[in-house]
Amino acid sequence: MSGMTPSAASLYDRVQRVIPAIEWPVFSDDIDAILRLKRERNAVILAHNYQTPEIFHCVADIVGDSLALARKAMEVEADVIVLAGVHFMAETAKLLNPSKTVLIPDMGAGCSLADSITPEDIRLLRQRYPGVPVVTYVNTSAAVKAESDICCTSGNAKAVVESLGVPRVLMLPDEYLAQNIAAQTDVEIIAWKGHCEVHERFTPEDIREMRAAHPGVTVLAHPECPPEVVAEADFAGSTAAMSDYVGREKPARVVLVTECSMSDNVAVDHPDVEFIRPCNLCPHMKLITLGNIRSALERNQHAVTIDPAVAERARLAVERMLAV
Ligand code: SF4
């Protein structure tokens, strides 16, 4: 394929099951422009699993959950990284690539979990629980990571908690993730009161109604859902674990109890699986569009910066996680 450049026209086949033909002309001009700009600027696009299919399947170079993006961000050789995701993900990419330009197409792409806790909150918790290590979910600002002992994702939280070899940890800021992990380990977990605004809306009744309406459906839930929802599911795991489950078990019918775009993105690779799609959108993830990815590359905006003293401590917390 060397020398051959993909074009929007050649990419449509891949996404035709999830993007109606009538919508495609709206995207194709931006896709061609982004593919050209990536070459001109030696840029790569990292896209989270919750990005829409025209981003995820047509312009992204690296896709995955928070952990995969953090890991793969360390191996990137390009000059410019565009993070198609939310602000804390762009900060994590910058922490691991301090010399590269990291762009986020919309500075307003935040996260209800990241907004639920401040560095000052952690300093107060440390006074209240002296000597108890602080495990912080990656869905937090760099300033919060800098106050933490180690980071975790929904995919590795249990392993991270148990790696510390202590009887008790603070696990912040997602209360439900903390409760779901507490159910799987002997380590005592002290939680914070943060919630993901997408996953907290699912209820056990939703799951029961889906099972009644779609007999035989396999239910996969994200561990940011309340424990009562996870209890109704057949399997709980990170977005990467859900995607692996579908590939491995090939359920005839499945529902992914998580953000809407995830089902579209996984469905592209599994034409034989019927996806039931309850839809809870993340309004922050949906601020990222082909249009603002194109503008980001054209205008070099918006560059992510982190105070070097904060970055150094935050990077340590991320690197400790990656070493587990
Ligand atoms: S889906 Fe939830 S955790 Fe993820 S960015 Fe949106 S609000 Fe934050």
Automatic annotation (TrEMBL):
GO terms for molecular function: 4 iron, 4 sulfur cluster binding; metal ion binding; quinolinate synthetase A activity. [4Fe-4S] cluster binds at C111, C196, C282. GO terms for biological process: 'de novo' NAD+ biosynthetic process from L-aspartate. It catalyses: iminosuccinate + dihydroxyacetone phosphate = quinolinate + phosphate + 2 H2O + H(+). It is an enzyme of class 2 (transferase). Binds 1 [4Fe-4S] cluster per subunit. Its cofactor is [4Fe-4S] cluster. GO terms for cellular component: cytosol. Keywords: 4Fe-4S, Cytoplasm, Iron, Iron-sulfur, Metal-binding, Pyridine nucleotide biosynthesis, Transferase. Pathway: Cofactor biosynthesis; NAD(+) biosynthesis; quinolinate from iminoaspartate: step 1/1. It holds the Pfam family NadA. Catalyzes the condensation of iminoaspartate with dihydroxyacetone phosphate to form quinolinate. This is Quinolinate synthase. The lineage of its organism: Bacteria, Pseudomonadati, Pseudomonadota, Alphaproteobacteria, Hyphomicrobiales. The gene is nadA.
